[in-house]
């Protein structure tokens, strides 16, 4: 079992910044990849950013150049630094972890709300 605890959401004005954190209950080296998805009202959940155990990074086109995903191996934590935020970034952000082993293929965090005002 992998538990993911998210923090860092909130309300910010357009152009501002937020940093999301996601702490895993297991060693980050037992996780194939971790990342962030988001879901805005009335829209499908979409991948925002992902980092693999090997350090490969993926970003949605809409956040490239503004968001940065990183990890702290010692803290088993992944971060999402969000800069130059736009109203369209408003969504619930979910941390996701894909473990290397186990019967469960993916774990989701509880979600954290990010609201960007214009």
Report on this model:
The protein is mainly beta and 118 residues long. The protein is built from no helices and eleven strands. The chain has strands at 4-7, 10-13, 18-24, 31-39, 46-52, 57-59, 67-72, 77-82, 91-99, 107-108, 112-117. The strands form two sheets. Strands 2, 4, 5, 6, 9, 10 and 11 form a seven-stranded mixed sheet that branches. Strands 1-3-8-7 form a four-stranded antiparallel sheet, with no helix packed on it. Strand 5 and strand 6 form a beta hairpin.
Topology readout:
Elements: E1 4-7, E2 10-13, E3 18-24, E4 31-39, E5 46-52, E6 57-59, E7 67-72, E8 77-82, E9 91-99, E10 107-108, E11 112-117
Parallel strand pairs: 2-11
Antiparallel strand pairs: 1-3, 3-8, 4-5, 4-9, 5-6, 7-8, 9-10, 9-11
Would you kindly provide a brief summary of this structure?
With 118 residues, the chain is mainly beta. It has strands at residues 4-7, 10-13, 18-24, 31-39, 46-52, 57-59, 67-72, 77-82, 91-99, 107-108, 112-117.
Q: Biggest β-sheet: count, sense, barrel?
A: 7 strands, mixed
Mean of all residue-level pLDDT scores: 96
- Series of secondary-structure elements, N-terminal to C-terminal: EEEEEEEEEEE
First-last Cα distance? 40 Å
Q: How many DSSP-defined strands?
A: 11
Based on secondary structure, the structural category is mainly beta
The level of helicity is under 10%
* Unreliable stretches: none
Could you say which overall geometry the principal axes of the C-alpha atoms support? globular
Beta content: over 45%
Radius of gyration: 14 Å
The tally of helices reads 0
């Amino acid at each position: 079992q992998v538990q993911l605890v998210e923090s860092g959401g909130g309300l910010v004005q357009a152009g501002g910044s937020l940093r999301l954190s996601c702490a895993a209950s297991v060693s980050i080296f037992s996780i194939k990849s971790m990342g962030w998805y988001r879901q805005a009202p009335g829209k499908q959940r979409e991948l925002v950013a992902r980092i693999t155990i090997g350090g490969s990074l993926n970003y949605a086109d809409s956040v490239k150049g503004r968001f940065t995903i990183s990890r702290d191996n010692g803290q088993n934590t992944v971060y999402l630094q969000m800069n130059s935020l736009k109203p369209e970034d408003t969504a619930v952000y979910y941390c996701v972890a894909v473990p290397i082993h186990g019967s469960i293929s993916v774990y989701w965090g509880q979600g954290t709300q990010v609201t960007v005002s214009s």
